[in-house]
Amino acid sequence: MKTKTLSLKDLVKTYNEYLKNRGYDRTVDSSTDKTIGITATKSKESTVIEGKIIDAEAGITQYTITWSAV
Fold this sequence. Notes:
Elements: H1 8-21, E1 26-29, E2 35-42, E3 45-55, E4 60-69
Antiparallel strand pairs: 1-2, 2-3, 3-4
C-alpha cells in the first residue's frame, strides 16, 4: 500500500481550512514554498503552526503546532 505524500503547499492549505472550520477568524499565513508559518486567533485561543522542509529529496518536513488558551 502506497501512502500519498502531501506537498507543503497542500499541507498549508489543509491547515488553513481546518482553522477556518474551527472558527479562527483572524489568520495570518506567511508560508513560503519551503516554510509553514500560520498564526490564528479566536476569542481567547490562539495557535501557531511553524515548519520547514528538512530534506526535500526524502520528502521530510518538520513542523511544530502550538495551541494556547488565554
